[in-house]
Amino acid sequence: MFRHQVTVGFGDCDPARIAFYPNYFRWFDAAYNAYLFQYFGSFEEALTQINTIGTGAMEVGARFHSPVVPGDVLELELRLSNWSRKSFQVDYLGSCKGRRVITGFEVRGVFVRVDGKVKAGSTAGLRRALGLTDLG
Predict the structure, then answer these.
(1) Domains of the chain by residue range
(2) What are 9-50's pLDDT values in tens digits?
(3) Helical H segments across the chain, by residue range
(4) C-alpha to C-alpha distance for 113 and 117, rounded to whole angstroms
(5) CA 22 from chain center: how many Å?
(6) 3-state secondary structure 32-70
(7) CA 66 to CA 110: how far, in whole Å?
(8) Three-state DSSP class for 79?
(9) 30, 46, 55, 93 - which has most CB atoms within 10 Å?
(10) How far apart are CA 124 and CA 121, in angstroms?
(11) Residues near 16 by Cβ (< 8 Å), separated by ≥ 6?
């Protein structure tokens, strides 16, 4: 499990002063990138070590449990799950001071370029780099 904090600003909110829902997906992505940074140190190094052009989202979803307002500190917990040969899932649990505010997920692929086209490649290199040897 990995934790990432985001302080919600006024500009992150809609006119009702609650976090505008697309921002959660931006914060999910930031948490995922911070998670990778702890293993690789840079985006470029991650790409090199996993032999990919990126690990992009293929499907996303979220359930909003409670509103977040300016000044709240959103703590996102991230876990990787549902590994397959060509995709994996990133699960998110977001809370503010112990109050659950969001649960979400991203299904991501490890993308490669083959004959000028972008395709989902093998997740094996990423699993190895993260110290995960099976698809569990």
Answers:
(1) 2-129
(2) 999 999 999 999 999 999 999 999 999 999 899 888 888 888
(3) 22-40, 43-50, 124-129
(4) 5
(5) 14
(6) HHHHHHHHHCCHHHHHHHHCCCECCEEEEEEEECCCCCC
(7) 32
(8) strand
(9) 55
(10) 9
(11) none
Question: pLDDT per residue over 85-134, tens digit each?
Answer: 999 999 999 999 999 999 999 999 999 999 999 999 999 999 998 888 76
Q: How do beta strands 117-120 and 73-81 pair? A: unpaired
69-37-47-28 Cα dihedral, nearest 10 degrees:
-20
What lies within 8 Å, CB to CB, of 7 at 6+ separation is 71, 72, 73, 74
Is residue 61 within 8 A of residue 105, CB to CB? The reply is yes
29: nearest Cα among 63, 76, 64: 76
* Cα-to-chain-centroid distance, residue 105: 8
What CATH number is given for 2-129 in this structure? 3.10.129.10
Position 103, amino acid: T
The amino acid sitting at 92 is Y
| Catalytic residue positions, numbered | 14
